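Write out the 3D structure for:
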Amino acid sequence: MSDQDRYIAGVPCWVDATEPDPDSAVVFYSGLFGWAVENVMPPDSERPYHVGRIRGGDVAAIGVPAEGAPAVAAWNTYVWVDDADEIAAKVRAVGGRVLVEPLELPGFGRMAVFADPAGAAFRVWQPREHRGATVVNEHGSVNFNDLHTGDLDGAQAFYGAVFGWELLDSGGNGGMWALPGYGDFLEERSPGNRAGLAQMGAPERFEDVVATVEVLDDGTAPYWGVTFAVDDADAVAARATELGGRVIVAPFDLPWVRMSILADPQGAIFVASQFVPPNQPEGVGGATEG
């Protein structure tokens, strides 16, 4: 780990979208979030990988479905790990599935694709040169990674065994995943982080939170979703429609946020979330990093 890393093992660190038509997706997301986008693959590659950036910092990427995989658009969550092979063994040991064995992506890192026992797919990232997102929690960048599952008890057992996550009750239909020690890491990187969260009235242990979980009760297949921070949820919903996307759920209010559920033109679903804290002291930003 370098001194500048924003992540430790067990923290979601990157997202990308698999899109049947990646060029069209680039037009949509750069128009929606203002990303500057670069295809980081060689010019002769048949599999582009477009990295979106804000002020030169990596935010997310857009690629194509794996060879032989269904041509379905979706956002993917990557969790930072020290050893992808070790995590694969843990996944198998607690009832998960290895969908793609750990493999090396030269010049980037080592990754694998898994599914939890309920079927929600996620990815892990053992970093080499690519060290995850460098811009988070601001307009057009990732704010949270969100598990949607019908089996909360099973998810708690699985992710606890694989990543050491603990479930915190958020008072709603689900909760938050906390990683012991993550708050200490953030405090070392950004002294005063805990105090700032406390001033805003954040829940206990919010500094340890790495993801959220929502319980599904409508028969929807379990999945990992992505929430992007935005300055104005209503404006982003309107802009998504202008760019050919869909508003699945119109902007609505919850404690701390105003959010909308959107889909891009190819059907990948994501959340746009505007941070609206009830008590924000001057100079204090949004949620914890990562």
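The longest strand covers residues 97-105.
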